[in-house]
Amino acid sequence: MRHTISVLVDNQPGVLSRVSGLFSGRGFNIESLSVAETLDPTLSRMTIVTRGNDQILEQITKQLNKLVNVVKVIDFTEGEFVEREMALIQVKVDDANRSEILGIVDIFRGKVVDVCPASYTIEITGDEGKIRAIIDLFRPMGILEVARTGKAALSRGSKKEKAVKKEKQNESERLERGSNG
Q: Which of 15, 54, 71, 159 could crosslink 155 through cysteines, CB 3.0-4.6 Å?
């Protein structure tokens, strides 16, 4: 089964290594990994996509929660969430396919971010299916290079608001424990 996991962590060196080590130590491949600072510069959000059975993933989630630098772990697999990925696709262009490429970019609501005499670099944002579809359309024209960001994901609507409140509460408790220890 495919799992999208959000891990809120302290923004410190070595945290990514410890988190990814839990996955590799249990034979799980990380299919997609996206990490960035949150609004709070002391925290980062990791979005991890992996495949595996529910029992082992539950064990990994529990062990992630035990790591000192982990503030919160959410497995989005069972809840509603929004996910997006961004891709840069460099495609060969010539007089014969130039307008067709621009038409595809327009249909997919993408942007041409670089123009050279023999290629365009296109930026496209969407879910995995949208990215795959535009790559499939460009493949016969000649894709020179592709760079993908990996998924970013957040809970939908009111669940998100509840999670933010809980996140703040957990952070306060963690800070309290730190000052008492």
A: 159
Say yes or no to pLDDT of 180 above 80.
Answer: no
- Beta-bridged to residue 32, according to DSSP, are 49
| Rounded-to-integer distance, Cα 44 and Cα 138, Å | 34
How many CA within 13 A on the CB side of residue 118? 3
Residue 157 reports pLDDT greater than 80:
no
CA 21 to chain centre: 18
Q: Please give the Cα distance from 179 to 176 (Å, whole number).
A: 5
Instruction: Provide the residue type at 29 as one letter.
Output: N
DSSP state of 48: E
User: Would you say 139 and 109 are in contact if contact means Cβ atoms under 8 Å apart?
Assistant: no
pTM confidence score: 0.72
Number of CB atoms found within 10 A of residue 48's CB: 26
Would you state the structure tokens that stand for residue 84, as one six-digit string? 């997006």
Coil/strand/helix, residue 124: strand
Structure tokens at 18: 């410890």
CB 112 within 8 A of CB 120: yes
Contacts of residue 16, defined as CB under 8 A and 6 or more positions apart, other chains included, come to 35, 46
d(CA 157, CA 79): 11
Query: What's the rounded Cα separation, in Å, for the pair 10 and 40?
Result: 10
Q: What is the pLDDT of residue 1?
A: 80
Contact 48, 5 (CB under 8 A): yes
